[in-house]
Amino acid sequence: MSELLGVPSQVLFGQLLLGLINGSFYAVLSLGLAIIFGLLNIINFAHGAQYMMGAFVAWMLLQYAGVGYWWALLAAPVVVGITGVVIERLLLARLRNADHLYGLLLTFGLALIIQGIFRNEYGVSGLPYGIPPELAGGRNLGFMFLPNYRAWVVLASLTLCLATWFVIERTRLGAYLRAATENPTLVQAFGINVPLLVTLTYGFGVALAAFAGVLAAPIYSVNPNMGADMIIVVFAVVVIGGMGSILGSIVTGFALGIVEGLTKVFYPEASSTVIFVIMILVLLVKPAGLFGRTA
User: Fold this and answer.
1) 3-state secondary structure (DSSP) of residue 191
2) Three-state SS for 96?
3) Strands 138-140 and 145-147, how do they pair?
4) 269: helix, coil or strand?
5) What is the pLDDT of residues 202-234, one digit of tens each?
6) Most buried residue, 11, 41, 183, 249, by most Cβ within 10 Å?
C-alpha cells in the first residue's frame, strides 16, 4: 500500500472524504444560518433542531406514507420551511426591532422544545434510514473506494450552496433582500412587501437546514440529538467565515471539514477541538471573521 506523508494513502483519502462529507453539512447549515443572520439579523439557535426535523420528516414519510428518498428530499425542506414561516410570523416578527439576544433566547428555547418532543416520542437510540438503491455501492478509484451516496452528498451540497449564493448576490431578488435589510422603509415604498420577504427568507434558511437533514439521514442515524451535536460546530464555522457572509459560510464550511478530517489522521486527539481553536485564533486576528466586514 502506497503512503503519503507517512500515512497509507487509503487512510488519508478516506479521512479526507469523511472531512468533505462533514464539510458539506457544515456548509449547507452555516449557509442557512448566514442567510438568516445576514439578511434578518436573527441568531437562529433552532437551526440544529430544524436540521433534525428534516431527517425525521424524511423518515416519517418513508415509514408512514411509503414516500422514498428522492421525494423526501423535495418534501421535507418544504414541510420544515413552512414551520419556519409559522415561527417567524407568530414569534420572531414580534422581536424584529429588539436586541439580537432576544431572538437567540427565543430560538434556543424553541430548539429545546422541539428536541424534547421528538426525544419523548422516538427516544434517543436512533432510527435507520436506508441509502436509495440508485446510489448504493461505490467505485474503486485505485487510491480509495468512493461510496456513491457520499459523492452525491458532496455534489448536491456544493450545487445548492453555489445556486443560493448566485441568487442572493447576482439576481434582482437577492438585491431586494439585501436592500430590505438595510433600508426596509425605502424598499417598501417601491411596493415590495418587506414583512413577507423577511418571512419567506427565514423559511428558506430553515429549509436549507432540513435539506441537510435529509442528506444526513442515510449516513447518520436519525435521532433527536443529531442537531444539538452539529449546531455548536456550525456556529463556530459561521463565526470563522464571518457572521452573515454567504460566501464565507460556504468556503469555510467545506474547508474546515477537510481540516477536521486531516486532523483525525495526523493528530486524532485534537480532531474534536481543532475548529474551535481556529475560531479563537481568527477572532484574535480578525474579529469580523475571514470574510466578514468590519462595521
Assistant:
1) coil
2) coil
3) antiparallel
4) helix
5) 999 999 999 999 999 999 889 999 998 789 999
6) 249
Cα separation, 104 vs 98, whole angstroms: 11
**Considering only CA atoms, which of 66, 67, 64 is closest in space to residue 75?**
67
**CB crowding 81-96: b at 16 or more within 10 Å, else e:** bebbbebbbeebeebe
Structure-block grid coordinates of residue 290: 475571514
Q: Look at residue 3 in the predicted model and tell me its pLDDT.
A: 67
64 vs 36: CA distance, rounded Å: 32
Give 144's Cβ-side CA count (13 Å radius). Answer: 17
- Beta bridge partners of residue 269, listed in sequence order: none
Query: In this structure, is the dihedral angle defined by the CA atoms of residues 95, 33, 282 and 272, taken in order, positive or negative?
Result: positive
Query: How many beta carbons lie within 10 A of that of residue 76, not counting itself?
Result: 26
Residue 118 corresponds to which cell in the numbers above?
A: 421528538
Structure-block grid coordinates of residue 89: 410570523
Note the pTM of the prediction, 2 decimals.
0.93
Name 145's bridge partners: 140
Residue pLDDT, tens place only, 253-293: 999 999 999 999 888 899 889 999 999 999 999 998 998 76
Residue 205 and residue 238 in contact, taking contact as beta carbons nearer than 8 Å: no
Find the angle CA(253)-CA(255)-CA(261) to the nearest 5 degrees. 105
Per residue in 132-167, pLDDT (tens digit) is: 999 999 988 777 788 999 999 999 999 999 999 999
- Measured CA to CA, the distance from residue 221 to residue 242 in angstroms comes to 31
Distance CA 83, CA 205 (A): 12
C-alpha cell at 295: 462595521
| Dist CA 256 CA 237 (whole Å) | 7
